[in-house]
TrEMBL record:
PANTHER family: DUF3669 DOMAIN-CONTAINING PROTEIN. The lineage of its organism: Eukaryota, Fungi, Dikarya, Basidiomycota, Agaricomycotina. This is DUF3669 domain-containing protein. It comes from the Eukaryota.
């Protein structure tokens, strides 16, 4: 995930990309797949891979950002998630050869089959010359207001660790209920985003009211999670695997919700397959979902989200889960015009998603209850 847990499954070198010793670039997040750097005073960040062999995965992530940010860039209501806009992808060719830039504006909406019109040689440019491995730029997610970071540490961290690391963002783990009341240790030097479960979120939100900072309600956040997940599933066509949902800063509103980190996402729905005026016999799904119907694929998406993701509320979390489900299904209903010919099939598949999601949760709760006897 963005940065904090990028591609945990890959075992790669952890040496940083080459940059001059006097560089002002600041490392703000990192993981086993890549690192994110920020140049002071800029509103963009630079995401680079640790190994050149991962350049295709980075390019696909760049393309994914292009598609995803087009449907969720500027949130209008509390609880809605924004997605950083990508700007340029930099592919170095060689030490003595010009590189190339790919502009996000020239990327086709598909995250599988991009169509680029502009491939231009890169002349001498100071910032790109900092990187010897593939890199792309995207909007910087603003850091939380210092008051929020300070209050989080005072509320949830033991005194001995409060000065061990800075906090830029907070992960929204609304499907998790086992966070300790107080965190007593963090990994030294870790560039990661600490977690907020619902309990911590509510306590932090109440605390911040006295500082004039208004947080979205947990119900609004849950609904926003459903909205952004549905958009990624059905408008972008990706499985949303391992994306990160966080609380970040906002100059206008104090806080803002963001979804990002798409390096693990896979496309399950063919681009524009549902956006036709009439049905056809053509396949709708792709990749490892290629042999599935929409409903079968939706069940597999539910298994993925339930077993791998801790961000989304679970069915047994009454009072919260309903808002998550309503956010997802409301997005499906609002998007009927996008897939008019397949509206019934999409609605049925969304129903299957939640039937499977609820079945998995019921089974897990039953196992937990048996162990408590």
């Amino acid at each position: 995930m963005l940065a904090s847990t990028l591609n945990r499954s890959l075992e790669v070198s952890i040496s940083p990309p080459h940059r001059p010793a006097d560089s002002e670039l600041q490392l703000i997040a990192e993981g086993s797949f890549g690192q994110i750097f920020h140049w002071p005073q800029q509103t963009t960040v630079y995401k680079t891979v640790r190994e050149d062999g991962h350049h295709l995965q980075l390019l696909r992530e760049f393309e994914c950002y292009s598609a995803a940010s087009s449907i969720a860039h500027q949130p209008q209501a509390p609880g809605e998630f924004g997605i950083p806009r990508p700007w340029q992808y930099w592919q170095p060719i060689g030490i003595d050869q010009p590189g190339r830039i790919i502009n996000a504006a020239n990327s086709h909406l598909s995250v599988l089959s991009p169509r680029y019109e502009a491939n231009r040689e890169l002349s001498s440019r100071h910032l790109w010359s900092e990187f010897q491995l593939p890199t792309f730029t995207m909007d910087l997610i603003p850091s939380l207001h210092p008051v929020i970071s300070q209050r989080y540490k005072l509320l949830f961290w033991a005194e001995k660790i409060r000065h061990t690391m800075s906090i830029r963002l907070l992960r929204l783990y609304f499907g998790r209920t086992n966070l300790p009341a107080v965190t007593i240790s963090v990994q030294p030097g870790l560039k990661s985003d600490p977690p907020l479960d619902v309990s911590r979120y509510e306590r932090l939100a109440e605390d911040l009211e006295s500082y004039g900072i208004q947080m979205p309600t947990p119900q609004q956040v849950a609904a926003g999670m459903g909205q952004v997940l549905a958009r990624l599933h059905w408008l972008v066509g990706i499985n949303a695997s391992d994306i990160e949902l966080v609380l970040g800063g906002s100059p206008a509103h104090g806080v803002q919700l963001y979804a990002f980190d798409f390096n693990q996402c896979k496309q399950w729905l063919l681009p524009d397959a549902l956006h036709t005026g009439s049905k056809s016999s053509a396949r709708l799904t792709c990749d490892k979902y290629a042999e599935d119907t929409l409903s079968q694929a939706a069940k597999r998406l539910a298994i993925l989200i339930f077993t791998q993701e801790l961000y989304y509320p679970r069915p047994h979390q009454t009072g919260l889960y309903e808002h998550f489900k309503d956010g997802y299904m409301g997005t499906i209903e609002a998007g009927r015009d996008n897939w008019a010919a397949y509206a019934k099939e999409v609605q049925s598949a969304a129903d299957c998603f939640f039937e499977e999601y609820e079945r998995l949760d019921a089974e897990k709760q039953a196992r937990t209850n048996r162990l408590k006897r």
